[in-house]
Amino acid sequence: MTQPAAVPDLQPTFHSSRPPQTKKQTNELNKIAKKLRRLVGQAIQDYSMIRDQDRVMVCLSGGKDSYTLLDVLLSLQRNAPVSFSIVAVNLNQKQPDFPIEVLPQYLAKLGVEYEIVEEDTYSITTTITPEGKTFCPICSRLRRGILYKTAARLKATKIALGHHLDDDVETLFLNMFFGGTLKAMPPNLVSDDRSQQVIRPLYYVREKLIQRYSNMVDHPIIPCNLCGSQENSQRLVIKELLADWDRRFPNRVESVARSIRNIRLSHLGDPNLFAFQNLCTQARLHNVREEYRHSP
Hints:
Layout (H helix, E strand, L loop, with lengths): L1 E2 L19 H24 L8 E5 L4 H16 L5 E8 L9 H9 L3 E5 L2 H8 L7 H18 L4 E3 L4 H15 L8 E3 L6 E3 L7 H11 L16 H15 L3 H9 L18 H16 L2
Parallel strand pairs: 2-3, 2-5, 3-4, 5-7
Antiparallel strand pairs: 1-4, 6-7
């Protein structure tokens, strides 16, 4: 069901269902909001995520990340150098005890155009996932297909996801440790059939900053009964590793994230991406030139 857009009544700070109680809290919230706007705005600029007249479909799961993403984009929308519209979309996967009234009430109060899509992916995921395996791979593929179709129907030009810097680093290590590939989450990508463009505006944002902001504004968090029910997942192992690094080695996670954006192909080993086979020829040519240059 699609709800008509209303004019957002947003204050200079982000939307909050629980306003700060003290001046100190207000100042802290404003400081966090400013940092979020700066980081998201920088990512949007660096990777050309949003262009003039874009219609951005923000995928809202009910978690802190997607709530924060929506808040930041609504805030940036007011003063952005380009004009873009926003539609929030939630996929109701028919999880048991899912509070179906929370998101419609929240989004209606926020005054943003939204749609709730109902598809029973929960039953499919729990039925066909082999015992002992995580639900995430099948669940994510089902959700992705539905969201792509929804974006096409709503004529959205961009699909905005709430993945952040920690997700990017976790994915890098997951693929290295368990898949033998050097691959993370791109900030901006096109779907395999070239029909949809996916953006990740929280690409530069640490999860702990999102958590602080979400706690302060009291987002109505809806836990996931699928991924949240499997505590032995590989991603959780990586999360614990990064949390340990944060405690013992400040800024290490940020350093790893920077390395993803600072690649030297000649210092890796993929012959499909770098022409190692030409190096010997280049060296021989250089030596011949040097000999000729210094010959009498």
